[in-house]
Amino acid sequence: EAGVAQSPRYKIIEKRQSVAFWCNPISGHATLYWYQQILGQGPKLLIQFQNNGVVDDSQLPKDRFSAERLKGVDSTLKIQPAKLEDSAVYLCASSGADRGLSYEQYFGPGTRLTVT
Amino acid sequence: DAKTTQPPSMDCAEGRAANLPCNHSTISGNEYVYWYRQIHSQGPQYIIHGLKNNETNEMASLIITEDRKSSTLILPHATLRDTAVYYCIVPRRFKGGSQGNLIFGKGTKLSVKP
Q1: Are the Cβ atoms of A42 and B107 closer than 8 angstroms?
Q2: B94 DSSP assignment
Q3: CB contact under 8 A, A43 and B44
Q4: CA dist., res. B67 & res. B34, Å (int)
Q5: Distance, in angstroms, between A42 CA and closest chain B CA?
Q6: Are strands B108-113 and B9-13 parallel, antiparallel or unpaired?
Q7: Average pLDDT over residues B96-108
Q8: Dihedral (C-alpha) B100, A20, A30, A62: value to the nearest 10 degrees?
């Protein structure tokens, strides 16, 4: 079974530029998550989708971050404009929850973003 | 929502058991405890979860105290590849209880030494 795919793996941009990350979850997984992980900290949930609907985006900085999952499969996370403090690893995860409520999430390798 | 407390770091000798503690004194009766780990430069990886009975799988064992206020993750024979940050999490459930998510803390950095 293929895992969660993310691209690009690395990205370097200047502040005030925009950037987009892509995630392809495990086939059949209805729930998709985007996390931000700053060096030395645990992952911080940005947004959670159930199929193509948003379940939780309470920690998403909506003035500059946006995310979509139009067909309930792939997802993109965009930052526009980027700030220096956005430098982090952006992780995508998915879960199937096919046996009731489950918190077994499968993570992709992440995208390391450096804002200069 | 129950919060967890873990030591920031631990060392373990290769081949020995690694016992990672976690306190979750405010956990409620129907809340599970989940454990994940994150090896350097990789995404987190699910290890195990439990409610009140001890659990074991191919990766680890989970011992939950009778009062459920703490738990211990046991790696029975730690190897160098077990060096990672280990996260103990009590998932946050939304009102209505049909969904929820994980709130990661800083975890315990386990260093397995030869």
Answers
A1: yes
A2: P
A3: yes
A4: 17
A5: 5
A6: parallel
A7: 84
A8: 40
Tokens 């929820």: give the residue. Answer: B100
Three-class secondary structure of residue A84 per DSSP: helix
Query: Using CB atoms, which residue from A45, A56, A107 is nearest to B43?
Result: A107
- Chain A residues at the B interface, defined by Cβ less than 8 Å, are 4, 33, 35, 40-45, 48, 50, 55-56, 91, 93, 101, 103-110
Give the SS3 label for residue B80. helix
How far apart, in whole angstroms, are the C-alpha atoms of residue A113 and residue A93? 17
Nearest residue of B to residue A108, measured between CA atoms: B43
Which residue in the block uniquely carries the two structure tokens 């995310």?
A67
SS3 A20: strand
Per-residue pLDDT band for B68 (boundaries 50, 70, 90) equals very high
Closest residue to A41, CB basis, from B94, B100, B106: B106
Look up tokens 């929850």; give the residue.
A97
Indicate the pLDDT class of residue A99, thresholds 50, 70 and 90: very low
Is residue B67's pLDDT more than 50? yes
Provide the Cα torsion B75, B77, B79, B83; round to 10°: 20
Greatest extent of chain B over all pairs of C-alpha atoms, in Å: 48
Nearest 5°: the CA angle A62, A78, B104 is: 70
Task: Judge whether residue B1 has pLDDT over 90.
Answer: no
Lowest mean pLDDT among A15-19, A92-96, B81-85: A92-96
